[in-house]
Amino acid sequence: MTLTPASAPAPELATLRVGDVVAGKTFTLSRDSLVRYAGASGDFNPIHYRDDVALSVGLPGVLAHGMLTMGFAVQPVVDWVGDPGRITDYQVRFTRPVLVDPVDGAIVTVVAKVGAIDADAATARIDLTVTFDGQTVLGKAQTRVDLA
Amino acid sequence: MTSGSVRRTRALFTRTSLPSGGWAIAHEELGKAYPYTGGVPVNPDLQGRVFPPVPPYLVGREKVREFARAVFATHPINHDAEAARAAGYADVVAPPTFPIVVQEATLAQLLAQPDAGIDFTRVVHGDQRFTYSRPIVAGDELTATLSVTGVKTLGGHSMVTSESTIVDADGAHVVTAISTLVVRGDE
After folding, report:
1. Contact status of B113 with chain A (Cβ, < 8 Å)
2. Among residues A111, B36, B40, B53, which one has the fewest Cβ atoms lying within 10 Å of its Cβ?
3. Which residues of chain B make contact with A85, given a CB cutoff of 8 A?
4. What integer is the mean pLDDT of B154-159?
């Protein structure tokens, strides 16, 4: 299947500088979010919805799926570039868990900055800082966007 | 285990002592947390192995919408077929991490490999990468093929890196999903 990529107006590469904050958002996770992600992804590991199981393996409580965090962390960038087809690469390291309180949930903040610009290729590397409880939870969280 | 390797690998784990005297590791993704039981090293011969393709995955429109809601994707292209068509796509477009759903069957293949020496209860997800030729859209029939590209041992732990190459019904590349799984070894 051949598809023509969207012609949505992309941010102009020439206006970007390394270090610019281009997008950001705060996400509030609840236990409901985890159950929803479990169903959508097929990852039904009970440590993502059962406190008793989480505690039995020595965790302080239920954790968010790492792939859920990876999943929403890129969304501000998708909205910024205007078309998911402009995302050509996305990688993260999982460095810290996100504990989701049954009552208060968890608040995770994403800040997206320009990490590098390749003018010849018309691409930019966008670096994501993803923070929960005052600490980053993803390492080397980078996405490459095509701004041609 | 050397102290250097402890430092190198510690960031990947949350490690908690258990009353039984053992300990548990926790990690993201599959955010798996498991009691440590000791084990054997991963078979280094896995490196370079290519697995048979898994059965095709047909991407449904409602599945894309469901996944998009689950990862807080609010772009109309993810939900509204008309908006997607207006942007040049055949149908609703899946969020960037949707390939994990297709990749999962290939990782199950790897973990189930009898000679791999991968004890599933000691596996955590170290890192994840997707390299795209194009986004996945509803209606795609995707076939994933896994190859093991790296087996390393670091301070008694094994790091198994695999690539799942995902192609469409025409055989054209859509996305490659790369995962590093960390398998705890003996201390």
Report:
1. no
2. B40
3. 89, 93, 134-135
4. 84
Q: Could you give the 3-state DSSP secondary structure of residue A64?
A: coil
Alpha helices in chain A (DSSP H): 31-41, 51-56, 66-73, 75-81
**Mean pLDDT in residue range B167-183:** 96
Dmax over CA atoms of chain B, in Å, equals 60
pLDDT above 90 (res B27): no
Give dist(CA B9, CA A83) in Å, integer: 36
Instruction: Tell me which of B28 and B61 has the higher pLDDT.
Output: B61
Looking at B15-149, list the stretches that DSSP marks H as alpha helix, in order from N- to C-terminal side: 61-70, 76-79, 81-86, 99-112
Q: How far is it, in rounded angstroms, from Cα B137 to Cα B80?
A: 12
B23 vs A contacts (CB less than 8 Å): 58
Q: State the smallest CA–CA distance between residue A63 and chain B in angstroms.
A: 7
The ipTM is: 0.93
Distances (CA, A) of B30 to A9, B33, B51, B126, B139: 36, 9, 22, 10, 27
Facing residue for A27 by CB, picked from B12, B72, B168: B72
- Tell me which chain B residue has its CA closest to the CA of residue A64: B31
Q: What angle do CA A34, A37, A43 make, to 5 degrees?
A: 100
Report the alpha-carbon distance of residue A95 to residue A141 in Å, rounded: 10
